[in-house]
Amino acid sequence: MISLLGMIFLMGVAWLCSADRRAINPRTVGGAFAIQVSIAALVLYTPFGQRALEVIAEGAFHVISYSQAGMDFLFLDGGQPWFGFIFVFSVLPVIVFFSSLMTVLYYMGVMTWIVRLIGGFLQLILRTSRAESLSAAANIFVGQSEAPIVVKPYINGMTQSELFAIMVGGLASIAGSVLFAYAALGISMEYLLAASFMAAPGGLLMAKILMPETESPDERELTTDDDEDMQYVNVFDAAASGALTGLQIAMAVGAMLLAFIAMIAMVNGIIGGIASLFGQDGITIEMLLGYLFQPLAWLLGVPWAEANIAGSFIGQKLVLNEFVAYFGFVGQQDELSELAQVIIIFSLCGFANFSSIAIMLGGIGSLAPQRRPDIARLGLRALLAATLANLMSAAIAGFFVSLTL
Predict the structure, then answer these.
(1) Domain assignments of the chain as residue spans, ordered by start
(2) Can you give the pTM of this predicted structure?
(3) Could you tell me where the DSSP H helices lie in 277-351?
(4) Which of 152, 163, 142 is nearest to 378 (CA)?
(5) Which end of the chain is more exposed for a tag (fewer CB within 10 A), N or C?
(6) What DSSP assignment string belongs to 216-272?
(7) DSSP labels for 71-135?
(8) How far is it, in rounded angstroms, from Cα 322 to Cα 316?
């Protein structure tokens, strides 16, 4: 039940950091929170929802298995795998395959239909604008750089609140291709899927508290001509383009892990060397982050005995990135209780970290250069809102999982 206290605390932080508390729309905030709670209750507490999530996860794993065929063709020699590159050959190819698949589905109109359906639902229930609702829906499936393309015609004329909501939605969510990569690492697909869907209303919830709407959004219809960046010659062109995009993401993830893990080792060496001068051994950056974020992890519902390690992962995700945090979590998740595992998985499921601000500035800024100053100015506030959205999902998930234990 500590999770309830955590939810109140997160709401309080969001309210205190609001740019205009009197302009907060109770219907939008209440509706977004209700949807977030409803999704969690359905898939984490009810037998029907749990079974439905298992079926979806099983189907998702079947999709992942198809990438194995391409991986075998490239990396198996006479049935024997090349040794030493297990991570590269088991996780990164999933990103390439899923990116290609998503591009094909967009080309065929399947994803566009799904995104507009979910976006329309959010707009109807929350009274948010067409653009921010569509972007929130798109972020369930694609990354923070790709989702804004869906609403590219709107960006230059967006209100401050709309632009902020787009930014928060991108930071609070993860790309579908990366979600599949996390699952390939050994993280529960069911919880990843639930967290991904909860991020859509969760992002809008925190965005509309921290930056409520005070202007009149553009509500014109999005036409097929507006989707010019999603057009390809044929399905083969779409598949090839998606594969190349996936390869770029995979290479970036691999390089990022190599650099950050090496950097952590270097910093730990420096910290350890300095600490040893004072007779203290075993001090690491992970340990320091754990102590810093331990109270927050406890507020989310993690038992105090495990809150230090949970706080460490939350801190790593914010300071470094979610992939580094998940990579470390995989090696220790079997040592943690189910409740702690669930809360950590939900807490880490989002792009909310300092480096993502630069990615967002480049992504959305390239679509609407004249809004780049606004994006830079709102970056840290958007990071706060997205982090609160991820933590709120974790607190809600922890609450419902604790009821089943």
Answers:
(1) 2-404
(2) 0.83
(3) 285-300, 304-319, 322-330, 338-348
(4) 163
(5) C
(6) ----PPPPGGGGGGG--SSHHHHHHHHHHHHHHHHHHHHHHHHHHHHHHHHHHHHHH
(7) HHHHHEETTEEPTT-HHHHHTHHHHHHHHHHHHHHHHTTHHHHHHHHHHHHHHHHH---HHHHHH
(8) 7
The amino acid at 211:
M
What distance separates the 2 farthest-apart alpha carbons in the chain? 68
Cα-based torsion angle of the residue sequence 302, 303, 306, 310 in order, rounded to the nearest 10 degrees: 10
Question: Which amino acid appears at position 149 of this protein?
Answer: I
